[in-house]
Structure formats: C-alpha cells, structure tokens
Amino acid sequence: MITSFTLASLPVTRWQNGAGETREIVRVTAADAPFLWRASIATLQADGPFSRFDGVDRVIVLLEGAPLWLRGGNIEHRLEPGVPWAFAGEWPLASEGIVAPGMDFNIMTQRHLASAQVDIATTAQRPEAEGVACVLKGRWQMAGADHHAGGGIWWQEESPGDLVPLTADASLILTTIRRVSGR
C-alpha cells in the first residue's frame, strides 16, 4: 500500500494544552499498543511541555520556524531546521524559544515493536518496504506523482520504487521503519 498526502489534506487535531495542533500522516495499528508507528506534522505556536509517551522512541525534524531549545531534566538540545533528533518518549522535555509559529515532522515507534531511521535525502533513493517520505524543499517524483514541500507518501508491505529529486534544491525526510523480528 502506497498513500500520498499533502499538508492541506491531513486532518487537524488540537493539542490538549492548546499550544499547537497535529496533522497525523499515518498511524499503523498494533494489537498490544496504541500504535506500532505513527507519523505526523505538528504546528508549534508557543513554548510548552511535550506529551509523554512511555515505551516510545521519537524523532523530530523542524520543518519551519526559528531554531528552538528542547530542555528537561539534564537534557538540553538545540533543534535546528532540517536536522533530525531522536529521543525517548519518557524524557520530560519542553520547548523553549518559540518566537513565531513553526512546524515539525514527528515519527514515533513503539520501542518493543519497531524502530525508525530518519535521514535527510538530496539524491535519488530506493526505500525499503515500510516508511514515510516528506518533502522539505523543491519537488520530488514519488509513486508516479510530483510532490512539493509539506507533501509526500507513506507505504507498507512494498517499496514505492525510486524517489527522484526534480529540482536542484530538492531535499526530503526519508523515514525507514524496521519492525522487531516476528512483529
């Protein structure tokens, strides 16, 4: 299964704390957890705590907006645009330094069921059998269609074939999901 998306096509859900909203790209179900893996794009409107997800590994990529700090406990990380950062869902993090609304890409995996590898690609790619590709800049040919910033594809059970940059400035977030053996 290969599914295309655009930012405008994704349903909007407000955060419980009112500091932003999420547009879910995909949620793959699991029998013994709320999800096996999940990808989304979130709008960051104000500083505040991240939701806690026990047993979940997360990767975040700032899509739009100024760099900001993620802090909590003894963790202090500067989140820069276009640079993936992996962290445990149990970490008590809060965002600091949001001066104007921004957006980020999030991938979450149930640690005991799957893992995610997130890379920034600027050249043609042939991904594996499960994942998400989200365009950062330029245009890409994916699954027989052109995709622009904020759009892309997700897939399961088959490779979508070659992902090909169509412009010199093209870059995308390429997420590969690897399931734990037997899941």
Automatic annotation (TrEMBL):
SUPFAM superfamilies: RmlC-like cupins. Pfam families: HutD (PF05962). Coiled coil: none annotated. InterPro entries: RmlC-like_jellyroll, RmlC_Cupin_sf, Uncharacterised_HutD/Ves. It comes from the Bacteria. Gene3D superfamilies: Jelly Rolls (2.60.120.10). This is HutD family protein. It comes from [Enterobacter] lignolyticus. The lineage of its organism: Bacteria, Pseudomonadati, Pseudomonadota, Gammaproteobacteria, Enterobacterales.
